[in-house]
């Protein structure tokens, strides 16, 4: 035995006359279903609009790999600037000349401080310096060795 198949679902919207022929409970049920269908259609339309907006944002968004590379490059620049600032601070703190500041090395701040102290220990101690020679005391030009030049200088100095 075969089971009777239900009536096919009508594809057209029933007319007002067809709805009037229905019992009250059927009309109320149909109105409820119509309201649910309308709400579902509105929600689907809103979801489609949100999906389209999200698709546009995704298309306009930068490549995540490129953003990650830019972020890494910025972090590398910040680390290099911090390292240079630490070297400069330690060089000034230990009285190192500019040429030696760039040579400070170390894995962390403590190692860099130890290296800066070691470099500072290699420098001569500051103290009194020998004065520069006074040109009036004979520290200027060397005396000529040729007798003719010595005679010419003697005459020049005597006439001046």
Verbal overview:
With 160 residues, this protein is mainly α. Among the domains are: 24-60; 64-122. 65% of the residues lie in helices and 0% in strands. It has 6 helices and no strands. α3 (64-93) packs parallel to α5 (109-122). The longest helix has 37 residues, at 24-60. The mean pLDDT is 82.
Keywords, separated by commas or semicolons:
160 residues, mainly alpha, rod-shaped
What's a quick, concise take on this entry?
With 160 residues, the chain is mostly helical.
Question: What is the strand and helix layout of this fold?
Answer:
Layout lengths: L15 H6 L2 H37 L3 H30 L4 H4 L7 H14 L24 H13 L1
Helix pairs in contact: 3-5
Q: For this entry, what is the oligomeric state of its chains?
A: single chain
The helix tally amounts to 6
The averaged pLDDT comes out at 82
The percentage of residues in β strands lies in under 5%
SSE string: HHHHHH
Helix-residue proportion? 55-70%
Measure the end-to-end span.
148 Å
**How many strands?**
0
Note the overall shape: rod-shaped
Output the radius of gyration: 48 Å
User: Uncertain segments of ≥5 residues (pLDDT<50)?
Assistant: none
The biggest beta sheet reads: none
The computed structural class is mainly alpha
